[in-house]
Write a structure and sequence with these properties.
Two copies of one chain form a homodimer. A six-stranded mixed sheet of chain A has the order 1-2-4-3-5-6, with helices on both faces. A six-stranded mixed sheet of chain A has the order 9-8-7-12-10-11, with helices on both faces. Chain A folds into two domains: 12-188, Rossmann fold, CATH 3.40.50.10440; 189-323, 2-Layer Sandwich (Hypothetical Protein Tm841, Chain: A,domain 3). Chain A starts with 12 loop residues before the first helix and ends in an 11-residue tail after the last helix. In chain A, helix 2 crosses helix 3 (111-126), helix 4 (157-170) crosses helix 8 and helix 6 packs across helix 7 (271-287). The first copy, chain A, is 32% helix and 23% strand. Chain A has helices at 13-24, 87-97, 111-126, 157-170, 175-187, 236-251, 271-287, 318-324; strands at residues 29-32, 37-40, 51-58, 75-81, 103-108, 131-136, 189-197, 215-218, 229-232, 258-265, 291-298, 307-315. The interface between A and B is large, with 68 and 68 residues.
Chain lengths: 335, 335
């Protein structure tokens, strides 16, 4: 069984998709072709406030381009599939998003992204734009005691950072307050993912790795890489429990605690499956006395067509929940 | 490469997913376990107006349960995967949704659905509830001159019917006006779908049919059945053109016409691929002088994990666009 994509030339894939995104949401955003970035184009797009800019490799859509709009991002910078955008792209997006109140960069912890966002921030500062960065490193599977290592990867908690900081920015929070808020969200959130089937790169016909029928890839990332180990395939309730247990331990969650939960589809996981996973997550947490204050269930941070899911838990601090509930209007998240 | 799902027991799949859906959206809807249906639970849920009820086999999520909420459905009735709900379920959902102003049933044209919704309508009428039905039959691949045949299948145009009639119902339209409006939407819309890979039934490990690497299944439905023929696999622009050409011909679309376009993912089609498809659709229509007034791009009417997409075009009558733009607040569609 070979895999095919709905694609023209793989080299044009991201650029063409950006055009299609803009054509589908002309009232919300504008896609700049070169350097490639997406910027808000709704009626509130010029109102003075701190601007939020994020980005990273493509293939994780709707992240980040689908989160451009009121209450979330002011600009998103897509690289090639699974590759960091350039510092030049990011600098251009900062310029397009800036409204004179400073720019908050939301960066997932990958070497290329960290480097290029940092260069872009420096270039913007030289031009007189205030810039702060929130580094998102929620992937518990990549925790390590290695002092000089790259640290934990950034995955689905980035959605919570963008939503919560985006809402605070709309309410007039300062750049320094937003940087602190983002750091608090990151420190309060952890994620674990598992794959039932690896993803296939655009133009390829076979997944990036093969899984035996009786095993799942545990602690997988969002770039088609191997996870930290294989575990037996089993019913959803066992897989969800196995994925969630280390998160609750790491966050020290227990009786009476409340969380914001993200059950994230990695690409080809059906809505029914994600609903079942959410049921099992609610049951597992309930067994610990942990309540679910808010949930987000769907494909928000994908790894191309990977079959699998991730669980992100964020401690439901009162201000987090209040900002989570604030209005948002983007292609992929609206309430 | 065998397929696995995130599932407990296949027999419990739909019931467990309904629980998970309610737990994720407690402010929007309530899932009744037995008989199974989903009903609005938001603040406006009791306001007098005509109620909209739809349903059908499961496996097409977010359709229909994800469209329960303000501006769309008042209740949705899920059957087992790819199987009609029972008349008893539908009758119960009608009762839960009814607010004394009558109930509009939105029914996709499949033999089981038509029969069971019709029995339920009769039962409700016997109990004094006014009921009208809109039959959705947009799938151009199943057009036939066979007078006694089942007629065209109902597919993604049902989203437009639910959105447009749902908005009109919120504005106070009468039951008979809604039935006429729904009929006009159906008459103005046609759909064609194509599969790059068949879907896999819950608990099974292999897709419902195999496709050779150089062919796609053309005119496919949303139940894992074969399409009307095989066509060569090719670039997205060719596949989109081939799918769209018969629709524009059937609707008589030409220079100066405008449409509402739905580019619908059938399950495992990535957001980037759907964006590329939307770009190619816009270009193809532009070549005919047809403008895209509004677009909806995403997985809205799925066929489990089928890889592929459908194109639905609806003539953009002024009242359709106005009602399309009206507020909607459901798990899967909000603006």
């Amino acid at each position: 069984m070979s895999v095919r994509q709905l694609i023209n030339d793989p080299d044009d894939f991201v650029a063409e998709a950006l055009q299609g995104l803009q054509q589908a949401h002309p009232a919300l955003l504008r896609a700049n072709p070169d350097p490639a970035y997406v910027v808000r184009a709704d009626e509130g797009a010029a109102r003075p406030k701190v601007a939020l800019v994020s980005g990273g490799g493509s293939g994780h859509e709707p992240l980040h381009t689908g989160f451009v709009g009121e209450g979330m991002l002011d600009a998103a910078v897509p690289g090639a599939v699974f590759a960091s955008p350039t510092a030049f792209q990011i600098r251009a997006a900062i310029g397009a998003a800036d409204r004179g109140r400073g720019v908050l960069l939301v960066v997932k912890n990958y070497t290329g992204d960290v480097l290029n966002f940092s260069i872009a921030a420096e270039l913007a500062r030289e031009d007189g734009i205030e810039v702060e960065t929130v580094l998102v490193d929620d992937d518990l599977a990549t925790s390590s005691s290695d002092e000089g290592g790259p640290g934990r990867r950034g995955t689905a908690a980035v959605v919570a950072v963008e939503k919560i900081c985006g809402a605070a920015a709309e309410r007039g929070a300062s750049l320094s307050d937003l940087a602190l808020l983002g750091k608090r969200v990151v420190d309060s959130a952890r994620t674990m993912a598992l794959a039932l089937q690896a993803c296939t790169h655009p133009g390829q016909s076979q997944p990036s790795f093969e899984l035996p029928a009786d095993e799942v890839e545990f602690g997988v990332g969002i770039h088609g890489e191997h996870g930290v180990g294989r575990r037996p395939f089993g019913p959803a309730r066992d897989l969800v429990a196995e994925l969630t247990r280390p998160i609750t331990a790491e966050l020290g969650l227990g009786d009476g605690d409340r969380v914001i939960a993200i059950v994230n589809g990695l690409g080809s996981t059906h809505a029914l499956e994600l609903s079942v996973a959410h049921r099992e997550l609610t049951a597992f947490l309930g067994g610990l006395g942990v309540g679910v204050a808010r949930s987000l269930v769907g494909p928000y941070v994908t790894a191309l067509d990977m079959r699998g899911f991730s669980v992100t838990l964020l401690r439901a601090e009162d201000d987090f929940v209040d900002l989570w509930d604030a209005p948002v209007r983007t292609p992929a998240l609206t309430w």
